[in-house]
Structures are given as C-alpha cells and as structure tokens.
Amino acid sequence: MAVKITGVGSFIPENEIRNTDFGNHEFLDTDGSPLTQANEIIIEKFRDITGITARRYADDGIMSSDMAFYASKRAIENSGIDPETLDYIILAHNFGDVKKGAIQSDILPSLASRVKQKLGIRNPKCVAYDILFGCPGWVEGMIQAYAFIRAGMAQKCLVIGSETLSRVVDLHDRDSMIYSDGAGATVVEFSENEDDGILSYESATYALDEAGYLFFGNSYNQELDKDVRYIKMHGRKIYEFAISQVPKAMKACVDKSGIDIDNIKKILIHQANEKMDEAIIHRFYKLYGKTPPDKIMPMSIHTLGNSSVATVPTLFDLLTSGRIEDQTLQKGDVIMFASVGAGMNINAIVYRY
Q: E strand or H helix at 128, and its extent?
C-alpha cells in the first residue's frame, strides 16, 4: 500500500508588497526607541539575509478560509476526484480567519468546516478539522493523512495550509517584512503502487526550552494598546535551533526511507529565510560527508515571502506546474519536504513523485 499526492493547487494573492514599500515605516527597537539606521539600510540588510524582495498580501475582504477554498478547489480539479469521496479535510493554520484591521481571531466554526461548506460537500462522513502546528502544519497534516490511509480509516484526504500573516504583524518590527499570505492544498490518496508516494516521515516537538522562540507579544510602539498582540520571534535562537536540529531530522527521515542521499532530486524546505535554508541544506549533506547538488533547493521566498503553512505546498504546486525557473521534476524522482516552526516543531517527508 502507498499514499500519494494526486492533486495540488495553490492560491497566491495578487497584491505584491515590495521591499521599497517599507521605506516610510517607523521601525523601532524592542524598547520602543527608533532604530538608528536609515530604512534603506535596514531593508537592504533584510534582503541580503532573507533573500526576500517582495511578498504577497491578501485582498482586504479575503479570509484565510477563502484562500484555503480556492487552493482546495484547484487541487481537487487537478486530481479529478469527486469531492464527495473525501474522507478527511485537514486544514493547517495558526491564527484562523483574521479580518483586516481586527484584533480577534475567528476559528468558530473551524476553517476546515468552512472550506467543506464552500466546496459544497454534503457527505457527513467527510470529517473536517484544523491543526495548529506552526509553519510545519501542512507537512504534519500530510503525515496524519498518511496515517489515516495506512490504518484503513480513509482512502482520500484533502490537506491544506493557509495563512494571512500580514494581519498579525507589528509594522514597527522589521521582522514583519518576512511574513506574507497564501494557501496551498493537496489531495492525498491510497495507491496500490508501493514504489510511489510517501516513503518515510519524521516529526518532533522541542518545547522544554524552545516553546517561546515564536510568541505573541506587544508592539514595539509602546503607545499602542497593550492588549493587542502581534507575532514575535527570537530570530537568532530560531536560526541556531533550525540549523542544528532540522538537518538531523532530515537525515533520520532519509535513513528510514532506505533511499540513498544521492537519489534525492529536490528538497522543498519551508521558505523562511534564504540563508537559514542554505545553512540547513549544507549541514544536512555534511552529515553524509557530501556537498549539496546544484539546484537541489527550489525557492519561492524571493517574491512570495514566508506564508507559513502555505509555503511548502505552494512551492510544490509551482514546481510541478513548471513555474519555477530552471527547476523541473520527473516522474519517479525522490524529493523531500521539510519544515520548522513555532512549537518548536520540526518534520520531514521523503516522497517519490
């Protein structure tokens, strides 16, 4: 028995926010004092480190569940299945539906239930639920779908990652430039071809010392409402954690798959920071005494930013549809999905396309 992706789709908002659009922002330090460097220098350093030159924000009237629906509809059309035959809808997000300008998250009903309703699915045995697992949420949803299908509890699952991070950022925090909006979805099915699909997985939560690396905190503008919270992170701690722990998890996943490292054709890693991702890949290959092959790591972060749970499925959609320059995927290629994020959570999947 195998579990494979039979359909993929994504929703990339049309609103492009370029780095230059942050030129007039008032960036503050953690104590509320203005940063001493000019915005042009701050933005240039940001680009050099993250690789981001632009990101996408959802239209004001579009919610995370709307983007999830659009991506899901495309994935279902791509797969050719009847949506009434879905056994599970698993939707990964972090903040629910957040209206533009609002300070409250809306997760009642669950976003997965909203997507099921928008898709017009009548079958009550199609179970819809949300998962909160930080940026690795879509990969974790894939692992859960794999478990359901392997256990005989399901034959078809829809796994979605959707987020509007632009609505939970502190505009006085330079880290806010990292985040973006988007959605990606996959249809996952039972397959009799044991050589295809998910070959192995790895998942872990490091919480004893690491749980607070990403958190909700006050704006750096101390004159704003103290009861309003925004996404915050200890960037250096996250970087050190990621480059230390993610390569080990990736190696454990590859070793369990029985695939030789030289047969991995592409690594689709969470798009959070280009330099961090490059460091993870180099350390991963170093564990095998090797250097990374050319073009092993397709990237979307340069123009799409970090859309959290949506980055990996969106990247997969872009890759398989030929929309990433100088990157291709052939039938039978072995790839890896990997992610790291709030929790702190890490996961990986080895997959034969």
A: strand 127-131
